[in-house]
Design a protein that fits this description.
Length: 112
Amino acid sequence: MKPQIAILISSLLLSLSAMAADTAPVMDSKSCEPPKYPKAALMNEETGTVSMGFLVGADGKVVESKVEKSSGSKSLDKAALGALSQCKFKPGTKDGKPDQLWAKVDFVWKLE
């Protein structure tokens, strides 16, 4: 069985209600490596979707990250959070200026 990893970047949403003048941060998926399938999770054929929140600074770097909904596998959650925390983002804006805002990202682990 060959592992295939698919990234599903759900519409990047702010964790708080967005106002018309606000824009959410957007991940630059070319700025980081995709997570590697943990060996034990691969051997156990674990799959799932992990939903994460990233607090993105005005400079586009991740300031804080958290798992909002687990994939059901701690090792898959940890691998996705660790790898995607290294990504750079186009910063979100508040009142037209770059600002520190939350973004939501879903990562799908599947085997094919």
